Amino acid sequence: MNCSLWHSLAAGSGLRAQRFATIRSAAVQIKVREKIFFSFPVSMIEGTIPLMRDHTKLQAFQMADGLALGIYTATTGFPKHELFGLAQQLRRAAVSCVSNIVEGCARNSQADYLRFLDMAYGSACEIEYQLSLAERLAYLTPEQADSLSDTCRRTAKLLNALIRSLRISDPGA
Fold it and tell me: Hey, how many other C-beta atoms are within 10 angstroms of the C-beta on 158?
């Protein structure tokens, strides 16, 4: 490890570092007066920068975000007794779908990214069933249900295609 890196980081802090670095579970920590001052993945030392993904550029994110907004709008018309039932389940699944895409994009490993995309796909499938149930219970009009179901199916297809392409490019993940 390059000690001058530690010295410059410690000097830049205005504090005298007593212990410069500790490697624990694939992370480097710089301690100043026995308190963690700075921590970053070992991959940064090894010369590779962790992969940064912009979730806003993914079509799957954009579609899932629109689906969440549509579900929130549609569930405002649900009966009061469903406020903590099906309406809440639909909302949670919609937020879970889009949130898992965002969280997966923030992960450093391909395996974690895929795991969160898999969860987003599962949430999209859950939403599809719940929409059909809401339509059969007459909480949604056929037009509302068809529109939201179409968006849901397109979201699931995009997620599935993204997952498959990532698994093909990295079969070990």
Answer: 20
> What pLDDT digit, counting tens, does each position of 36-87 carry?
544 545 444 444 445 578 999 999 999 999 999 999 999 999 999 988 999 9
Q: Which residues, in sequence order, are CB contacts of 58 under 8 Å at separation 6+?
A: 101, 105, 162
Q: Work out the percent of the chain whose per-residue pLDDT is above 70.
A: 68
**Residue 57 to residue 115: CA distance in whole angstroms:** 19
Q: Using CA atoms, how far apart are residues 152 and 168, in angstroms rounded to an integer?
A: 24
- For 23, the enclosing helix (H) or strand (E) is strand 19-24
Rounded distance between C-alpha atoms, residue 2 and residue 27, angstroms: 15
| Domain boundary assignment for the chain | 3-45, 55-169
pTM value is 0.69
**CATH superfamily for domain 55-169:** 23S rRNA-intervening sequence (1.20.1440.60)
The pLDDT value recorded for residue 36 is: 53
Residues forming a β-bridge with 41 = 27
Q: 66, 45 in Cβ contact below 8 A?
A: no
